[in-house]
Amino acid sequence: MAHWLKIPSKEKRREEDIPEPYEIVCVCGVSLSGYRRKTPYRHTCDQCGESYFILPRNTYPPLKARKKKKQIPTQQRITEYVLNSPLVSRLREKRQQKQATRKGQAGEATQPAPAELSPFELPPPRTRLMTPFRAILAGILLILGFTGYGIWHSRQLERAEVTLKTATEAGRELLEKGDLVGANTAYQQAAQALETLGRHDRQAFEVQQKARELEALNRQAVSPLFEIADAAVAQIKEQDLKSWQTLFDVRYEGSWLIFETTLIPVATGDEKEQTRYRLNFPVILDEYTLNLELTDPTFREYVEAHPGEPLIFAAQLSAFEQNENSPETGVILLDGKTAFMWSHLDLYEQLGIQFDEYHDRDQVASLLKQQTQFLERSL
């Protein structure tokens, strides 16, 4: 390759010598320029004497431009790849087999060729229900939910603390003034605040017990038992038992009565039936007897522990019953689930009870104290 410049033939060489200028910068800063010659030579700097090798002119013909390959669009390549994939090929074969089967069954001479399966007809990909992103999002929402609930609950507790203090003080002042209606409203608010706080200590019991007693005092039955018995006899005689039961439900159901009496267990033949206690306080008229029965009271344990002893309690009127075999006797049922034993003597005196030698105040106070101690032990 010593004479590589002479390899190109004369036919392939350039027909005319086109001058090729050059320009270089010497190390001393002087610009060296000129035209390339047919043979290489050295260009010496006149100022510093440094010489530079200069290549000769290019004797080779110019290169021909390459033909660009025809590029297939990307979408077309993707479509061809999908259509030629094994899955699409299997689907196409199955479709062709089904069409061939239908063709044989129908007995048609010719049928159009099956259309190419579009990639959009592929079955949807299976997605997982729980992905990392969804798991993170669910965790964030869970944390936000717990945080929001904690903030809301703490504010509810703060409000309940304030309500308990203010309502208790207001109820105590109203009781001293003799305003039972206002005191009842205040103590009901205090009782709701205690439920929010979830307290079950003695102070909470004291407030809740007063709230129950004030509720019973303010929602007593509109008529005493003797008037209820007279109304029952008159209504049953004039119309029938069903009309009186309807009137009883409208006028008396849910109202309260306060009793001081003993409870006598009522024997029932059915073991599944709720335990009943008959109050030793029958209302006897000339031709009618009205009994009161308490169904499955919440203080049943106290009654069983002190059989035959008097008891002071409040209960709501629940329903009226009458035995078909004994039309001269009626029964008023008292709701044992809402019934409760009394505790406070001052509120008991609000009923207008007068104490004497037969109804001693100290004995009543001792009985209420005994009932209160039982209730406190069950906290």
Main traits of this protein?
379 residues, alpha+beta, Methane Monooxygenase Hydroxylase, Chain G, domain 1, OB fold (Dihydrolipoamide Acetyltransferase, E2P), 7-stranded mixed β-sheet, two-stranded antiparallel ribbon, 11 strands, elongated
- Helical fraction equals 40-55%
Which stretches are low in confidence, meaning pLDDT under 50 for 5 or more residues running?
Answer: none
- How far apart are the termini? 115 Å
Could you name the CATH topology of the domain at 225-341?
Answer: OB fold (Dihydrolipoamide Acetyltransferase, E2P)
Report the radius of gyration as a whole number of Å: 54 Å
Sheet with most strands: 7 strands, mixed
Give the number of helices: 10
Class from secondary-structure proportions = alpha+beta
CATH architecture group name of the domain at 225-341 = Beta Barrel
CATH class of the domain at 225-341: Mainly Beta
In short:
The chain is of the alpha+beta class. It has ten helices and eleven strands.
Task: Describe the fold and architecture.
The protein has helices at residues 74-83, 86-106, 132-177, 180-197, 202-218, 225-238, 241-251, 300-305, 345-348, 361-377, and strands at residues 21-25, 31-35, 41-44, 51-54, 256-261, 263-266, 276-279, 283-284, 289-295, 311-322, 329-341. With 379 residues, it is an alpha+beta fold. Among the domains are: 18-60, no CATH class; 151-218, Methane Monooxygenase Hydroxylase, Chain G, domain 1; 225-341, Beta Barrel (OB fold (Dihydrolipoamide Acetyltransferase, E2P)), CATH 2.40.50. The strands form 3 sheets. Strands 5, 6, 7, 8, 9, 10 and 11 form a 7-stranded mixed sheet that branches. It has a two-stranded antiparallel sheet with strand order 1-2. Strand 3 and strand 4 form a beta hairpin. It is elongated and about 155 Å long. It starts with 20 loop residues before the first strand and ends with a helix. The model has no long low-confidence stretch (mean pLDDT 83). Keywords: Membrane, Transmembrane, Transmembrane helix. Residues 90-123 are annotated as: Disordered. The chain crosses the membrane at residues 135-152.
